[in-house]
Amino acid sequence: MQTRRSILIGMVLGLVAAAPHDRAFAEPTAKEFLSAIYGTYVGKDAKGMPLDQPATNRVFTPELLKLIESDAKRAAKRREVPNLDGDPFVDAQEWEISAFSVDLQEGGPGKAKAVVKFKNFDKDTAVALDLVQVKGAWRIDEIVGPSGSLRALLRPK
Known about the structure:
CATH architecture: Roll
Structural class: alpha+beta
Strand content: 25-35%
Oligomer: single chain
Radius of gyration: 21 Å
Helix content: 25-40%
Order of helices and strands: HHHEEEEEH
Number of helices: 4
Number of domains: 1
Largest sheet: 5 strands, antiparallel
Number of strands: 5
Distance between the termini: 76 Å
Strand order of the largest sheet: 1-2-3-4-5
Shape: globular
């Protein structure tokens, strides 16, 4: 027969054993999410974030992803270059990022705003991002760089 003490010890051991396992499957924080993205841009010949599926499914909100896909389809139909003709994360077609920082502000439940500052070819640049949680995971809903708003760029003209 189990005593109350052995039951409590078993429960504590179960919680301790489960804690690292649960953290391993936890979604990243908004800052970790952005740091992982921008980390792909650091260094000479860095590839950056792929802007095709399935990578974009894990990065953008469904609404923003739909705008990106519509822009590409309209351009293909007209046999033209899409309005999104660069990388929105760095607001450029080419980059050599030497360092970056992420400044994050919570914007209410499931929302955050961030400013990512980086040096691109030794030029200081800042990009603002709106993030929302979609099914518990952070996704980007807007990017505003020196060239302007990504959503505005993607709207049909």
